[in-house]
């Protein structure tokens, strides 16, 4: 199980590298925010897999904090985008 968890974590890490390149090239701020959300969810998955592979319970705590920050960041971006769109149409 440990080898499988580490292999999946490595695959997810490679996915994050591709997302980093896409975030750097993203034409809009919405594209960049989606990549930031991808970092949060994929990072949570990687940390949970590392915790299952034996990294310890602290990795689970960090994963939960990362998931919470990603969710808060997504909500903040959506509220800001909604306000900007609402004020432009007036």
Description:
With 90 residues, this protein is an all-alpha fold. It has one domain (2-89). The chain has helices at 2-25, 29-55, 57-89. Helix 1 (2-25) packs antiparallel against helix 2 and helix 2 packs antiparallel against helix 3 (57-89). The radius of gyration is 16 Å and the shape is elongated. The protein starts with a helix and ends with a helix.
Layout of SSEs?
Layout: H1 2-25, H2 29-55, H3 57-89
GO molecular function, one term: monoatomic ion transmembrane transporter activity
InterPro entries: MrpF/PhaF-like (IPR007208)
Keywords: Cell membrane, Membrane, Transmembrane, Transmembrane helix
In total, how many domains does the architecture comprise?
A: 1
Low-confidence segments, ≥5 residues, pLDDT <50? Answer: none
- The number of helical elements comes to 3
Largest sheet: none
In N-to-C order, the SSE pattern is: HHH
The total strand number stands at: 0
What is the global morphology? elongated
What class do helices, strands and sheet pairing give?
mainly alpha
Strand content: under 5%
How far apart, in Å, are the first and last alpha carbons?
Answer: 57 Å
Mean pLDDT: 82
Rounded to an integer in angstroms, the radius of gyration calculated over CA atoms is 16 Å
Helix content: over 70%
